[in-house]
Amino acid sequence: MPSLHNSTPAMAQCYDTPEGVDIRGRYDPEFAAILTRDALAFVAGLQREFRGAVRYAMERRREAQRRYDAGELPRFDPSTRFVREGEWACAPVPPAIADRTVEITGPADPRKMVINALNSGAKVFMADFEDALAPTWENLMRGQVNLRDAVAGTISFRDAARGGRVYKLDERTAKLFVRPRGWHLPEAHVLIDGEPAIGCLVDFGLYFFHSHAAFRAGQGAGFGPFFYLPKMEHSREARIWNGVFERAEMVAGIERGSIRATVLVETLPAVFQMDEILHELRDHSAGLNCGRWDYIFSYVKTFRAHPDRLLPDRALVGMAQHFMRSYSHLLIRTCHRRRVHAMGGMAAQIPIKDDAAANEAALELVRGDKLREVRAGHDGTWAAHPGLIPAIREVFEGHLGGKPNQIDAAAPVDAITEEDLIQPPRGARTVEGLRLNTRVGVQYLAAWLGGSGSVPLYNLMEDAATAEISRVQNWQWLHHGAVLDAGGVAVRATPELLAHVVEEEMARVQEEVGADRFRRGRYKEAGRIFIRQCVAPELDDFLTLDAYGLIVVHHPRGAASKL
Description:
The structure is a single chain. The chain is α/β, with parallel strands linked by helices. It has 2 domains: 371 residues, Malate synthase, domain 3 (TIM Barrel); 114 residues, Malate synthase, domain III (Malate Synthase G, Chain: A, Domain 4). The protein has 20 helices and 19 strands. The protein has an 8-stranded parallel β-barrel, surrounded by 7 helices. A 3-stranded antiparallel beta sheet has the order 2-8-9. A two-stranded parallel sheet has the order 1-19. The relative contact order is 0.14. Its main location: other. Pathway: Carbohydrate metabolism; glyoxylate cycle; (S)-malate from isocitrate: step 2/2. One of its GO terms (biological process) is tricarboxylic acid cycle. Belongs to the malate synthase family. InterPro entries: Malate_synth_C_sf (IPR044856), Malate_synth_sf (IPR011076), Malate_synthA (IPR006252), Malate_synthase_CS (IPR019830), Malate_synthase_TIM (IPR001465), MS_C (IPR048355), MS_N (IPR048356), MS_N_TIM-barrel_dom (IPR046363).
């Protein structure tokens, strides 16, 4: 764990914690209503029951990466062929979430954003504790307060900046899904038996404990709560989640199979485990989703030692690339064979308010992408901004013809092979691509260090996946000495070239954001971290894990801070 900051106590207030649990985050009465003794005991019980399995799964991830580094390629597991070829189905789709044609995503905080997303007209709102949320103590706890109030129907927000305008829920709202963090991320503000809690068990446990009854009585119509599960690489990780769900259902005294979860297939190893993942979660499954931006990041990370698999400029790595198209098509076939939703990827565009022509061009790109998805067989898709929802809904509803989904559609029978799923992408590698990676990566990381995980950059809503793709692609090009096109001149990617690019791009960022904002922000710190990551001899697994210690603030037990 990186070194942590400490804060001087201001007053002796403390959370009521069960034995073995220590809260090192700031005391706040609102947070205390979430961090109750019983809720913390529930989270601690999950941690104690499943931490051994999580440690084992993380070690198996590292073992697999060592094999890939030695030249092995990802493949379907011969030992689970019976699962892939067997005739079985997941539990029937709950009626409350049969129609998921348009889903909007966003962080669990700020509060106004949660209200607007629930009122957006989307069928589902995925409230995020993962890539769209910088995991500061304040963000995480305010997010828990927001979701508790949203499920209760009492959430509201008075916006002083808009003359005291009050935001509250409409009569009809999107169905709420919640995305906890991945298995690899700790929660350093919550210590259980002297060690940081597993972040996703904190996210899941607190939300479930406070909201399962109200959710099932309302939004879920007897089912729920509903979740999205990120960053899994193997079915053994899905097995842990299934155990968590069963344990939670037992403690709450609710029917087995009440909880449902959609798994994001956003790592290269997971695409070879889709049947197995669904099989492990078959009583709790709500399908799979194409997490395509993190999938590209994972492709680079998995093949970090393979110089024959260098990515072109990331702008060229879209769904038209053979390995991406194959992944999407296999996900659709797998889900529909197992009778669950196959969800499409993110449309990250945000409205361009001051340029009608550019805005319409962006919307046309979104329409084309979503038409490709629905024609391929996807049952729904993601949007990052409410302004995209009408256009996306029109595309999906126009194709589905009144049906809530196309789970019943006949699947193509042509085989998708292991080679299809790992075929190297084609396209140019350019110095301009290196520049864009650097400019976007540094700006995102600066915002993340400042507490923002969902960041508008160049008319796109970016989350942590953007920074991850940017830094691993830069690392890949430098590590393998890729030849880049510099306006018709071939240059080799070197640390010296990157240093020159960073200097120029930092100056450009300062000009774009303004000298005062640049000085007050954490741009220079972000630049140093980004460079270190790009030139490191070994590729770090996650940028956000490396930088996490910089946003953790420990308060002595029994103390609150002056905020």
